[in-house]
Amino acid sequence: MIHPIRHLSFICVVLLASLALPSFAEQAINSQKYDIHYNAFNTMMVTPEVAQSYGFTRARNRALLNISVIDSQTMTPLPAVVSGTRTNILGQVLPLEFVQIKEQNAIYYIAQLRFTEEEMWRFELTVQPDLNAKPIPLKFSQIFYLEQ
Questions:
Q1: How many domains does one find in the chain?
Q2: Is pTM, for the whole model, over 0.70?
Q3: 47 lies in which domain range?
């Protein structure tokens, strides 16, 4: 079981990372059934203790992609099947490997990635909270910067 302080630290990092994004980028898609929140941020925003407890590598050239699914009616976190790829400007396509982090009041799907300074990646994901329904597509682009 993850220590509550580590859980709170991780939630704070995810929230701060979403606030650091431009205000015009909502970083969520909404439907009548689901709210799918997503963000990507440099691993240097995570404390060494939190990174170690979750098995993340902290480095200037590493980022975390975070996906969470919330039931729109009950506002409770939902499990989902999350998969996808990322593509750079050269057309190189790399798969993303998501790990589920399940906590008392949250479920996150996290993928780690490497990048170079000012590198832009296009993400094409599918999120499937209901295995009896079609996956929900999620596409976005983001430029990554090395943290000092």
A1: 1
A2: yes
A3: 4-20+27-144
